[in-house]
Amino acid sequence: MKKVITISAIIFLFLVVKTGLAQQEPLFSLYHQQLFLINPAATGSDENMQAFIDVRKQWSGIEMAPRTGAFGLHNSYSDKVGLGFLITNDRAGMIGRLSGNLNYSYKLYFSKEKKHNLVFGLGVGFIENKIDFGNAQVQDYNDPILFSDHDGFAFDARFGILYNFRGLEIGAAIPQILDNNIDYNRNGTDDFTFELKRHYIAHAGYRFSFYNHNLDDEMNKVKEAEEKFFIKPSVLYKTELSSEQIDLNIVAGNPNKYWLGFTYRTTNKSMVAQGGIQINSLGIGYAYQLPNTLPTEYSNGTHEIMLTYNIASKAKEDRKVNEKILGMNDRQNLLKSRLDKLKSDVDGIKDGEAETIGDDEIRKLEEKLQAQIDSLKDKLNSLKSSDGKIIYQDNDEELNKLKKDLNELRKNVLLIKGEKVYEIPKDKGSSDKKAIEDGCYVIVYSFRKKDNAYKGVEIANSKGYNANILYNETRKWYYIYTAKYDNLEPALKDMQQVRLSNYDDSWVHIYKK
Predict the structure, then answer these.
(1) For residue 290, what are the CA distances in angstroms to 80, 127, 277?
(2) pTM of the model
């Protein structure tokens, strides 16, 4: 019986060491719930501070089978910087591995909504490998090698990069980037060296989100969108150039209640069933890998469980509240601007001093659009079949678009002639004013009160515009404009862009002396 135990231990040790040499990094199945486990660029990726514990027991039921534990804590300390640490303990038979890393991430934004960004991550720390011969089951107890352990220590670093564009996520990481060696020693002498292999990880996924849309009745647009369900397929590739791991994942669920997932690991054709629930700030995840590589009478499969706790920051909660307040103020100012514009239009009609269409430039553009509409009508009539049905539908769509453009032109262009209009400085402390030049101005706000005009400029500038204030002394109105053009067509194009991005009620003022 002792011979069987001895032979089994030696074979098992050989398999574990061989696997460890090829894939020295700990293996996880729930990394998609904490990307921080495999990529330092995910440090501080959540709005709240996150603490988590992950425990994995491989080949359950077999003595001395691999066991892995991980503990991590990470947080975002600003919109750009994340900090955290990760400790992992990996043990298989007589071989143990303890590692620790301090991680830092820095984020670059490419859009105002901050959903398009690129993140760089760096982790520095240590790796300690230990061979505990005291756990060996052998017959010869007189060998002095069994009375001492072998310890090795080396500094470690890892690098990662993560690209996010709305639901798309593409990342890469290089653990053990220093490619150091661990020298094992016993009684102060070096016995042998363990080479740390540089690993390469690539992963990508896309999150399909389905929302509950809460409408703002006053603004007639979405004021808040809450994700009610998601589906995220993803893939992971990991190698150290002598072996590889390929995972095909799919996860779906409600982000605030539950999720279910499945992984197919192509390298050993294993399958992993996963699931989890969210209870307030506590998340619980579980993964079960089917025992496909070992007979079921020896192994009950591989189990992994992860506990995640979100620690809300009062400062971040306050910042969210402030952002909501600013958003409400913005909507309130926009509503005031719409009301003021209506009053301004009414005043213009009463005074008879404003024409919506009357300037030669506007009339020419209107005639051009109408000519295109008439031309398309003729084409449509020529393309009708004998039964009167339209054969070519695209022209019909283009016709509707031109009609819409013509209506927009009539509604959103205001010509003002012979009125006293000045540009006033954005600095409240200055009273200087200068006469404006003739041209087409893209207007986003109009106000009766000067103080409101200054607030409107601040809001527009916070959205990335270089806004200025016009004062119509004849009408007693303040207008906030974001751009000026000599011709109407580019002004209308800019107005459409402004409407799509921030101000869906902007218009064009044409000033003539």
Answers:
(1) 40, 30, 21
(2) 0.58
